[in-house]
Amino acid sequence: MAVPRNALRKWEKVRDWALGLPGAVEEHPWGETVAKVDRKVFVFLGVDDGSHPLGVTVKLTDETAHAHALVCPGAEPAGYGLGKAGWVHVPLEPPGAPAAELLCDWVEESYRTVATKRRAAELDGRPSQRATH
Hints:
Pfam families: YjbR. This is DifB protein. It comes from Streptomyces gancidicus BKS 13-15. There is one protein chain. By secondary structure, this protein is an alpha+beta fold. It has helices spanning 5-19, 63-70, 100-114, 117-124; strands spanning 24-27, 33-37, 40-46, 55-59, 76-77, 87-91. The chain has a 6-stranded antiparallel β-sheet with strand order 1-2-3-4-6-5, with helices on one face. Helix 1 packs parallel to helix 3 (100-114).
């Protein structure tokens, strides 16, 4: 299955943004790409090998952001009971899927939700690194 180029570009921008956050590291549990801070996952990036549709899963505790994410085409509460804790899976391939900039905002919110106060303060104390999306 071929991965649509625009979805792959979005996925790469979101991955790069996530890994640029203070203390973020990439790991590959279960054969899937995740970004963690202080051993806690803040975004599930899935796989980019075409075996599954591209998508991201983020923890959104802000009610407005959570509701917005859930109305995206194909979005749903995350599986394995994570949806009950505010995790939302957002596909990147359907027409009308969110732009990379919005996805990066959600990744940042997810990061702030799981990161320590010290890490969040590091993020607040540096100039914006977000490239034009």
